[in-house]
Every structure is written in structure tokens, then in C-alpha cells.
Amino acid sequence: MRVFVIGLDSAPPELLFNEFDLPNIRRLLRKSIYGPMKSCVPAITIPAWMCMATGKTPGELGLYGFRHRKGNSYDEIWIAHSLMVKEKAVWDYAGERGLKSVVLGVPPSYPPKKIRGWMVGCFITPDASTNYTYPPELKREIERVVGDYIFDVVFRKENREEVREKIWEMTEKRFELVRYLLETKDWDFFEFVEIGLDRVHHAFWKFFDENHHLHEPNSPFKNVIPDYYRLLDREIGKTLKLLDEDTAVLIVSDHGIKRMKGCFAVNQWLIEEGLLKADLNGIKPGTKLESVEVRWKDTIAWAWGGYYARIFINVRGRERRGVVRMSEYDKVRDEIAEMIRSIRGPNGEKWNTKVFYPEEIYPVAKGDKPDMMVYFDDLYWRSAGTLGWETNYLLENDTGPDDAVHSEYGVFALHKPDIEESKHVQCTIYDFAPTVLNLLGLSDVAETLRGNVIG
Amino acid sequence: MELKEVRIPAEIYEKIEERIKETEFESVDEYVTYVLREVLASLEEEEEQVFSEEEEEKVKERLRALGYLD
Known about the structure:
The complex is a heterodimer.
Chain A: E1 3-8, H1 13-18, H2 23-29, E2 32-38, H3 45-54, H4 58-61, E3 67-69, E4 77-79, H5 90-96, E5 101-104, E6 117-120, E7 133-134, H6 138-146, H7 160-184, E8 189-194, H8 196-208, H9 224-240, E9 248-252, E10 256-259, E11 262-265, H10 266-272, E12 278-279, E13 293-294, E14 301-304, E15 309-313, H11 329-341, E16 354-356, H12 358-361, E17 372-375, E18 381-384, E19 393-394, E20 404-407, E21 409-415, E22 423-424, E23 427-428, H13 432-439, H14 443-446
Parallel strand pairs in A: 1-8, 1-9, 2-22, 2-23, 5-6, 5-8, 11-18
Antiparallel strand pairs in A: 2-21, 3-4, 6-7, 9-21, 10-20, 11-19, 12-13, 14-15, 15-17, 16-17
Helix pairs in contact in A: 7-8, 7-9, 8-9
Chain B: H1 10-20, H2 28-48, H3 53-65
């Protein structure tokens, strides 16, 4: 059976399944198995889309986010890209059996990999002047069909009108390209990811969500999020019309989204606790850790910010100026974890903070892993790595306007010809790959993966 | 951190012992771990050269503006 996958970055079950007037999506759901899909840890675009496509954990992939430390360095990083994914994705397994795939914008897909089929780069593509397609000739076709292809829209700007317009343009072009490839290529498996939904959520959430602490009730942007969902619904409707009845259709997301309650200045907190020693004299609010003088010989731990926090312990023999002995590593880490779990909110309220040790939550933790991964208050509080703030609790994002954070549950919906009624399911991101492989007739491969076949 | 044993020729062991005197390395184990890490990291680095310097800056700047590198 042919399989067509619609990837909507950050679509949460609460909105996609229940809110707004979305006739095309609802029609599909009426004959689908669907429900919330639990993301990986960390619930971030990279690695989540590749966990879905490979059925492997971030630990097995050695991907824990967009950036990683270069060989235990304090300040050098590498950026995740497609070649760092060494595990096979569903399209690789399909290709081995002679099936052809179209893979469009599934992060990370730059540089485009040689697959049996066609691949188009995702939003980490530097720009349209690079070779962002496989085969390289596909790029000319794209330019002919949509003109200048748009990979992404940077949303952390005050000029939100411009952000809105650009996201609309990007999404319309993406669907135009999807429909072109769908009709002209001889594919068995097709997956694309629309990143615009995530950008719309982050840029316009406070105008939409009455519970957001910075909610602006009568803003001209209050309908941007609902309008964008309707745009997606129209585009999906037009696209589904081109598919025959024998095609299985999936709608999935890599994680969900929810209102941001604030940012927690984690490095500042580590300094207060005496775990990080740095010279903060005369620094401005928002100063990066790399820009201040850290006294590494007295530092036990430091952190990276983001939707989740990564904590690194300064280990003797591992870090250049490490201090924590390997024999004390476990004890020190447990102590810091306990301190982190006991952090309370700005008004003394209890937080539901989660601390993860990579080697405990994955079968194996490859690559440049952090020592701890932290969800402050179940991700409601973003982690700010910057310094110089009057308080550790920032009500606005420290690095430009951003109103939303990730949530752990994305969406899963599977429609196939033999489903007559909707059925509710709860699944995990690891169930996607075996489910798709099974639909493609590769049940023997599906059995080798940890997830379950749905449907 | 789980530790495992490896064996190295005595001659190398002694050379390292000599070498780490008056350094911050407190044991041969520490030194060997450090050196192996460096070697492995440099091997991995070769595989990682996908973006040119200019491209990498462009991508980092975008990812920063998207909130992935805070």
C-alpha cells in the first residue's frame, strides 16, 4: 500500500483534533485511528522527527538537540545535520526493497541524502544557493514550480505582520511543491514536514491563549493561529483530493505546544548555588556564558538553555579543566539533580521538574550527550542560559519574542481504506516507523523495531 | 560513570607516568582517557564537515533566531 505522511511540526492533539473549523482534517479523522503521540526526550524537532523515521531513541542516534559539544569542549559546538543520522529511516528500508520515496523537509535533511527516490532539504539548509535536493536536478524543477523556495521563517522579530505574511507564503509554496511531487513522481512512500505551524505557534501564542501571562485580548493578531489552522486544512484538503482511495494517510507531529510561563535563568542559579564560578561584574542582562570569564578550576557544573536545559558536569580527565573526580561523578550528579528538582516557582509554588540521565533513559547513549537533561516545570519554563538578570525568573524570553514552549504529546492519525469508523489510540513516537513499514509490506523489518504496529 | 579496564604495554605506561609528573593529570588512567577522547573527537570531526564556515555561521544565526541555541 502507498503511504502518504503529513508532518505538522508541533501540532498538539488539543488543537488539531478538537478546535477550529477544519472540515478536511475532520473528515479524514472520522475514518482514522488517532490520538496523542508521546514524543521522545527531549521533545524537540531535532531529534524527534528522526526518532519517528528510524524508530530509534535520541541515545541510539546520538542526537540530543540542534547543537552538541565538540569533544567535551567548553565552547565549541557542532550543528546537527542529516549525515549525523547513521540509523536507517523508513525510506532507507523501503529503498532496499525497491520502493521509492519522496522525503521533503524532514529535519535534519540537509545535506540531502542519496535515497531511492527524491529528497528536499529541511529548514537547516543554509540557503537556496546550496545543493538542497537529491537528485541535484530536482532543484531546477522546484524553482520552476514555486520560484524561490522558502525553507523557514525566523519568527523572533517585533514586526509580526511580516512574519505572518512570510509564513503564509512559505506554507502555500510548500503545499504547491508537495502536490507537484505527488503527481509527477512515481513514489511508494511520501513524507513532508510543514515547519510553519511551529513558527506560528511560537510567534503568536500570547495573542491566542487567554491563559498566557502576557495575553493581549484585542490584538489584531488574535486570529492568526486559528487562521493558519484553516489554511493548513484547505491545503491538506486540496492535496488529499489527488490521492487515490488505496493510499494510507498519516498526520503526525514531533511534539506538542503550550503556553510559556517564563524562562528560568539556569546558569545564574548554578552560580547562586556555588556550582558555577564566573565573573559577573558589570555585565548587562542577557549576557551569554561564553562572554564572561568562567573560573573552570572552581566550577562543578554549567548549563545550556533552550526549550529544555542541558547540564554538564566539569569532570576531571574529561573536560580540559575538569574538577569532579570520576569516582565522585554519580554522587555529584545525583546531588545536583536533587537540587534542581527542588527548585520552586517565582511565588514559591511547586514545580513538576523532570531530570533525565541519558544513559538511564535510552538503551545506549551515543555521541556528545549532556550529563543531565532537565524539563523545568514539565517544560512550562524555558531554560535561559544567559546571565545578568535581576531575578532567575524571566517573564519574557531572554532571546527575542517567543510565547510558547513544547509539550510532550504530539499527534498521530492513520487513515487507511479498511477503516470505517474512528478509533482512539495512545501511542509513542517509536510506533510510527513500524506502523509505516508494516503498511509498506515490510512487516519483517517492523518486527525488529521497539515500537508497536498501529492499526 | 562506569569504568572498564584495558591493557597497555608497560613501556607506554611508564612513559605516560613520566610525562604526567607536574601536570594536572593525577593518574595514567586519566591521561589515557583524555588522549583517547581527543583522538576520537578529531576522527568524528572529519565526518562533520558539512557546512562551510560561512554556511555554518548562517545556520547558527538562524537557529539562534529560532530559539534552538539559547
